[in-house]
């Protein structure tokens, strides 16, 4: 059983001490003349259909569809101050008296909407911009702010649970993991999975330091590092790390550029796993089709966990191997790469369906372990049923996650066991054809249980509705359900 133990993977900011508690910016100038017309069609790929999240309703809103985040950040390690200018291209989904986003109480230094100065107030981790908006009429919001980052609690009891959001290291560096939320700890965000957006992130750091973010590297100018995401990204899949890093580049399958960021000395023992990334990606491509993004990579941080942050995986150096799982760090890395198909490219609409991410990624990880360690089919079947029974008894079914138990074992193992049942009934050829079709045809979309069931039934020509619903909702491990 130890060979298949599930990695529990995860991925904050306060005001400047001198800042007023409200984080209010007051208009100091008169409104500017009518701003020039903006062509919002260039960010069309960032359009989403936001859905209010039923698991964490305090995060995000369905009233706002952010098309693009332009983040210009500067980090000062000596004072632990983050200074930012966030330019958001927003499509309001309906008429409203104001705009509301998730945001930690930094000192807000100025807010404009379509070039006119407006009032922005931060209270209870919400930024409220006092200006009316019209449904489907895009606007440009610019927020200037500064302060010392602070992370936010994670709603979970996992052994590797850590605070979420931007974390300051003892050396004055930064790193973040933010599933199911936490992006709001370093920039104003609609912090929920259904609102994906495009990104341009530029981070300026002192000489000798490096800044790493999600997306494709777009160049370095002096001490400013820029990253661009031309594929839409959910807020929980963005990342930021600052430190005295070493950079290593490589090529993945079909020449996909890969970048690894690590600390010399501290991370030397992890280099063999990082360098194995092309092997992991080649194995995943064979199973699930081409890697869905134009670049990939890994940044190593001071965490006990790992996170599938888009195009730049965030891996904790504190993930420990053991006698039973000597390759845990490596197979956990493969798990995170698998999420680029299942979670990053195809994202759950709400956190109700986190099993859509974790079940697939965990199954990929365990299939890789079984193949590379030459384990039997029976050993995987036995492990999954035993673990499924224990987790359902402790945590309940995976289709009805408890908000206090985010990303605990039931949303990993139980849906993996369900996929195993589907796999056995379809056989290798049809199962992996289904998996490839799911991720390739749903690329850059948000999906849920209903759409998954409909897709499986259409793709296979068989009705798996009862099997899938039973495995997602049953309080006990289901008996085998034969689908004809």
TrEMBL record:
All copies of domain Aminopeptidase N-like N-terminal, residue ranges: 67-222
Reactions that this protein is recorded to catalyse: Release of an N-terminal amino acid, Xaa-|-Yaa- from a peptide, amide or arylamide. Xaa is preferably Ala, but may be most amino acids including Pro (slow action). When a terminal hydrophobic residue is followed by a prolyl residue, the two may be released as an intact Xaa-Pro dipeptide
E.C. numbers: 3.4.11.2
Chain residue ranges for the region called Disordered: 17-36
CDD domains: M1_APN_like
Keyword presence, Protease: yes
Domain Peptidase M1 membrane alanine aminopeptidase: from-to ranges: 276-471
Gene3D superfamilies per the UniProt record, alphabetical: Neutral Protease Domain 2, tricorn interacting facor f3 domain
Cofactor(s), by name: Zn(2+)
Domain of life: Bacteria
InterPro entries, sorted: Aminopeptidase_N-like_N (IPR045357), Aminopeptidase_N-like_N_sf (IPR042097), Peptidase_M1 (IPR001930), Peptidase_M1_aminopeptidases (IPR050344), Peptidase_M1_dom (IPR014782), Peptidase_M4/M1_CTD_sf (IPR027268)
The protein's enzyme class: hydrolase
Gene Ontology process terms (BP): proteolysis
Keywords, ordered alphabetically: Hydrolase, Metal-binding, Metalloprotease, Protease, Zinc
Molecular functions per Gene Ontology: alanyl aminopeptidase activity; metallopeptidase activity; zinc ion binding
Keyword Hydrolase: yes
Family: Belongs to the peptidase M1 family.
Name of the featured protein: Aminopeptidase N
Origin species: Micromonospora avicenniae
